[in-house]
User: What shape does this take?
Amino acid sequence: AQSVTQPDIHITVSEGASLELRCNYSYGATPYLFWYVQSPGQGLQLLLKYFSGDTLVQGIKGFEAEFKRSQSSFNLRKPSVHWSDAAEYFCAVGANTNAGKSTFGDGTTLTVKP
Amino acid sequence: DGGITQSPKYLFRKEGQNVTLSCEQNLNHDAMYWYRQDPGQGLRLIYYSQIVNDFQKGDIAEGYSVSREKKESFPLTVTSAQKNPTAFYLCASRGLDQETQYFGPGTRLLVL
Assistant: This one.
């Protein structure tokens, strides 16, 4: 069975500081990995995804993530955080089989200090 | 513009009442999904459908029902059997030749 762990429930960073959100997954084969962002009361917006190839993937809003198979991780990074990045972030693992179902982590809430 | 719409944005349910949440997409996606989101938790899968007139239970289907009569529509009914329905409900869709799910804006269900 596939699973996702986001170890940090809540992270606070200062505006302009760098950010790293952790994600660990469990999956039997090569996973499809996703990061989504959710603003309060809104749906989820896709930030980036990894299926194969280059293990460093670029996404929208200046985010990037690195797939590390040996560590079963897919951490999200941003070099300089903006106040508008405050939101909840979800990591997900999925597959093209299994009806395309994805399993989501419990999320990490990001607070940005001025 | 292509996308996924959910209505209403807020829905109030009385005890013993069934309510239906709407999800419509014009992305020509074959697969559609319903998730429930509770505070501090991730998304949990309620039901999903890969083609018209077919759907499968997810992890927490008890107290919910769905239909898929049209490709564009996947309504979710929260029945009176669901004893704790207060949550944020998200609908998503996916093309069968794609790997990514795209989400609607959500419906918040509250119990009066």
About this structure: The interface with chain A takes residues 4, 6, 31, 33, 40-43, 45, 48, 50, 56, 58, 88, 90, 92, 94, 96, 99-106, 108 of chain B (CB under 8 Å). The mean pLDDT of chain B is 93. Residues 6 and 23 of chain B are 5 Å apart (CA to CA). Chain B is about 0% helix and 50% strand.
